[in-house]
Amino acid sequence: MAVSDTQKKSTRQLLRALCYTCLGLVLPAVCLIGFLTYITRPPRDSEAIATFHAHRRAFERLRDMLHNDPEVIRVNYQGVSTAGPDNAEPDSSEGRFPRARYKEYLSALKKAGGEAVMQDDDRIGVLIRGSGFAGDTVHLEICRRETEPINQVPSIEAFHKAHRPGETADRRIEGNWYHWADW
Predict the structure, then answer these.
(1) What is the secondary structure of 110-140 as a DSSP string?
(2) In which domain, by residue range, is 9 found?
(3) Are residues 54 and 91 in the same domain?
(4) Which phi-psi region, left, alpha or beta, contains residue 3 (left: φ > 0; alpha: ψ -120 to 50)?
(5) What are the Cα distances from residue 69, in Å, to 59, 103, 107, 144, 146?
(6) pTM (2 decimals)?
(7) Same-domain check for residues 115 and 30
(8) How are the residues of the chain apportioned to helix, strand and coil, as percentages rounded to the nearest 5?
(9) pLDDT tens-digit map of 41-85
(10) Rg of the chain's alpha carbons, rounded to an integer?
(11) CB–CB of 75/102 below 8 Å?
């Protein structure tokens, strides 16, 4: 039984349509996965340390500002968290936290390439990367510590490869400045 030319042509058209459909679905999915993998990759140690050296004045400015504002716990692009029962809004009518000072923080954060600056106990940290979802999150900071941390590692990259959830690690940059990570 011979296959007619119209049946061959119809089969080729069907195969071509299936190939284009698969290509139209698979290629964007592969590109999206590649893009998401790239943007969620934490910066390498060398990149974070280079950022610190390139913008050291901004990091030191943020440290000095937090030393001068002991009531401030955290500043980011959404607002200011302060010690006490309420957070201070930069636009508050009472003026609990001056808008000009908030803008100074945001300017220094932008220069440092940070997402937030915070202080607790003996650490003032500039969050340079926070990513993840549903408990599988990573935070990277450049921070200034008053006491030497006990959990120092030679490489934050190596720490991430062999991490245990909930652990933190510090890598000394110089002096009291550290590259800090949790996972």
Answers:
(1) HHHT-SEEEEETTEEEEEEEEEEETTEEEEE
(2) 1-40
(3) yes
(4) beta
(5) 15, 14, 16, 16, 17
(6) 0.72
(7) no
(8) 45, 25, 30
(9) 567 788 888 999 999 999 999 999 999 998 889 999 888 888 765
(10) 25
(11) yes
